[in-house]
Protein 1
Amino acid sequence: MEFETLLNKVLEEPKIEDCCKLLEKANSFERARKLLDLASKIRDEKVGRILKLDSFVYPVKKCVMEKYCIYCSNYVEKLRLEPLSLEEFRTAIDFIKDCGMKRVTLEGGYNPDNSKIPNFIVMAKKSGLETILDIYPISQSELRAFKALGVSEIYSSLEIPDSKLFSHFKPEESFEKRLELAKEVCRNKIGLSSTIMIGLPNTGYEIWIKGLFMLREFECLKHCAISSFNPVYGTPLQNAEPLSPVSVAKFVAIARILLPDKDISACGSVGLQSLPLMLLAGANRAYLGAYVCRARTPKGFAEELEDVFKPDYEAKVRNGLVFANPSEAVERICRDFGFEVG
Ligand code: SF4
């Protein structure tokens, strides 16, 4: 089948098999460009040429898994981070607000203790920020309480949309429980955010696309975050190769075709430098707003930071926390590209 015929078929009557074929065939400059152009046009028509910037605070909870997910930095003991105290969280929110951000995501690892979360939500809401929760697990009563406090989106990430593979990469978690939380988020009429992981070894188009088809069933879905596997030293997957930014962009384009009016972002192995490519592929959201996280070293993330070239944006370490604001660099990209930042 001609590439354009396949593209139209996926657009009009999408099937997992055809989406896989489309990605396989989008392997020349002309075909990849056709796929990205279509996705970009759909984004312009359905959600507009506006980039929604997300800011975040990490971690609001410490991950307390007995068996950590095998791709995660928490797998490596020295990389595990202590959660922010209430006072530190207040400083973080003040910084994010001062940077002119509109929304903040409270991010944390697996931990059944959500006792500090209501206070965090109240602080974030009081400062006028749209507040999003990316924590797990959440009980039904907590879900209702978080909604009453004004949370606008809650994550329940399908991540690896296959029960068996999910348990392989996340030995202590259950895919079915993730699905149940996503349904509960919808029953409570809260916006659903969900991450699909791409690029993990022994996973491929079929599984990733199956995740997008599953998300199409959730009418409260607001945001699909595509997280491209980023190998972490010290984990069992440290030697695996991440996907190229072009591969991620092509998957973003498929996500835009399948979820035309939803927010779509890409993260993980793709960062600020890949933002233009993600926008060309139909993305309209990015975790590139101001952020505050616990510092891993006195320099923030690593000891070996080069001091030769001026970085894209500054990350300052104060009292054990990293304060960073990529939003000005994002605005420069968007200005050059005719995108608004919202
Ligand atoms: S639950 Fe989340 S934070 Fe904890 S190990 Fe798994 S991916 Fe990492």
Protein 2
Amino acid sequence: MSAILLRGGDLVTLDDEGSILRRTDLLVRDGRIAAIGEAATTDPEVAAALERGTAGEELEVVDVPRTLVLPGLVNAHCHSPMTLQRGAAEDMPFSRWLPEIWRIEKNLEPEDIYWGAALAAVEMIRSGVVAFNCMYFRMEQVAAVVRASGMRAALGETVFDPGAGTEAGDVLERAVQWTASIASDTEDPEDSEDPAAQRLRVFLAPHSPYACSRPLLEKVVEEAHALGVGVHLHVSEDQRQVDESRRRYGTTPVQLLESIGVFEVPGGCVAAHSLVLEPRDVEILALRGVHVPHCSITYAKLAMETFPLQPLIDAGVRLCLGTDGPASNADMDLFAVIRHTALMQKYMARDPTVLSGDTLLRLATRGGAEALGFADAGVLRVGALADLIVLDADAPHLQPAHSPIANLVHSVKGSDVVHSMVGGEWLMREREVLTLDEAEIVFEAARRGAALLERAAGERPA
Ligand SMILES: [Zn+2]
């Protein structure tokens, strides 16, 4: 037996009943939660190991008093290598920000993508994220980071129409080839030679209906069926895009995608943002089980239109939360997104009762896990994947602990996370990231970020 016993933490399970179990033990075995509560310590093998004093060899006992233990967070929409562009395009409207970002991206070297994603991975692990959904290009570099970091991820190689002026994207053929190479491994992870196969999923990732033509989107749907994968894209980010879609296609982006079959691909569809919706759009998103990552900080920072979430939840749309790229958010801390979403939504609705803390934490855990295709993660219950985090509940800003849920939504900081685990494997212990060389990554990312902007400045029109 090789198992880990977490002893004496306060478990915020986010199970169907919303159970909070104070000073409770949790047993992890074979990558899953094997027992909770008394059953964890009375498990015959655990009891025997404790009795024999052989804990440490076959049973790792970790005492976690005065902590909160909860499912690890899932960042359901991001562009992890964009850490290198953090702070590079500030105080601009979205319409100027996007071309500026694309102009800088043209100067990226493949290895930059590895180091940018590695920096994001360190940031995410440190702040409690255990899985992320990333859309970018040169995704083999990001896959290398996923393999090394021990995180779970869904990855999508971004596709544009060649010559659409967006440059940084890739043509569909290369994306399909790469997606197929990962999909064949992850289809039957038990048989795969890739030890990370269980932690990896792939999406086809056409950038958006405004950056991809209808024939390209149709081809993506065809390929998604052939490969048995889902689609991750950006949808209806502002009114301009919806107006443009009406002019070009006579319908909204959501209804265009519905007519092409994008929402009926085998691995499901993740439609990031979906901020400007009409009632029929909402019905379609709910009917097709489309996952919608909401990235509140990006919308506020770029002063974009945003949408009240409560009506989407009431309509049955499957929401989740994301940081988006750090060029438009400035960090990868999903706890910050949880708090920001709560504040924005309550403020917009002029109603402090909307989006309870419990709901938000579920969007940030199980909602994201389902979007990425890891349906048995995002909850602390027996049989679920052991993807969990442990937070220091002793911090001054978490006293007194009247409500663990309120503390997690409004008071916690990403830096309160002390331990992190995916599939029963430690990613971080006592705030030390075990899977990645943090010092080297910080050094390389800073160096490469500076060189990237120097190259981009060389081509800036006078
Ligand atoms: Zn995005």
